Each structure stands twice: as C-alpha cells, then as structure tokens.
C-alpha cells in the first residue's frame, strides 16, 4: 500500500469519525477521548487554512483531526484522540495563481498545490503521545523544509 492511499484512508477515517453521530444521538461508549490543541507553522508562517490528522499507531485507538485556522487547531474531547501514540499529518493547500477546469462542472477554478512536504503528511515523520492531560496535550508544530 503506498503512502498516498494510507493518507487518504486516514483522512476518510477522520471524516467518518467526525460525522458519526450526525443524525444519531447514540452515546459514545469507547475508550475515553481527550481534547488536544496546538499551533502549526511552516517555515515560520502560520498555516492559514489547513487540516491536521492524528492517525493511531496501534490501529485500535480512534483517529482524530480537524481544521487548522490562522495557525491554530482545537479538537474537542468528543472528537479527540484516546491516550495513545499517534502519527501526525498536516495538510495545507495554497493557490498556484493558475486556473484549471473543474472536472465535474467545467468551471474555471483556482489550481491549488500542497505546500507542506510529504514528510509531514503522506509520509509523515511526526509523532505525538496523547497523555490525557490538557497541559501536556498542546502541540507546537514548527515545520521546516
């Protein structure tokens, strides 16, 4: 399985986890989840609008993730990770200045490019241990080239 398909599967798991409960009032009965917050910058610039994903290394814990806005993210307890070790993936797509045709609508849209290197997303080298303590579960990700 290649790194891109792993990243796609991880994002799908985050989306499914985020959407589970929509339309259903079923109470979560799994292991305790914890909130996690943090900041993300790339080459000194705050990630203005991106996505962060926490992918469990043990394969049993819940994935977590959410949007990055103005260099910060906050994943609430109800959507947060369990106590476990996670791989961290950061995505940030920026417009290239070019226009392309949308495959579905044929409309001209801004072409975007992933600006964060693969070592921080599809082939992530980032890892975090979620301790279940709000003071410890604050990430500061200063990503470089």
TrEMBL record:
<protein>
    <recommendedName>
        <fullName>Carboxypeptidase regulatory-like domain-containing protein</fullName>
    </recommendedName>
</protein>
<feature type="region of interest" description="Disordered">
    <location>
        <begin position="51"/>
        <end position="79"/>
    </location>
</feature>
């Amino acid at each position: 399985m290649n790194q891109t398909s792993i990243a796609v599967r991880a994002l799908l798991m985050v989306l499914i986890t985020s959407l589970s409960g929509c339309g259903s009032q079923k109470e979560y009965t799994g292991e305790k989840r914890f909130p996690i917050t943090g900041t993300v910058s790339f080459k000194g610039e705050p990630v203005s609008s991106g996505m962060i994903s926490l992918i469990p290394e043990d394969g049993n814990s819940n994935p977590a993730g959410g949007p990055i806005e103005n260099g910060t993210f906050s994943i609430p307890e109800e959507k947060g990770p369990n106590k476990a070790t996670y791989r961290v993936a950061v995505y940030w797509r920026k417009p290239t200045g070019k226009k392309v045709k949308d495959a579905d609508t044929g409309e001209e849209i801004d072409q975007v490019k992933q600006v964060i290197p693969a070592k921080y997303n599809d082939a992530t080298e980032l890892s975090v241990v979620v301790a279940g303590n709000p003071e410890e579960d604050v990430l500061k990700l200063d990503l470089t080239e």
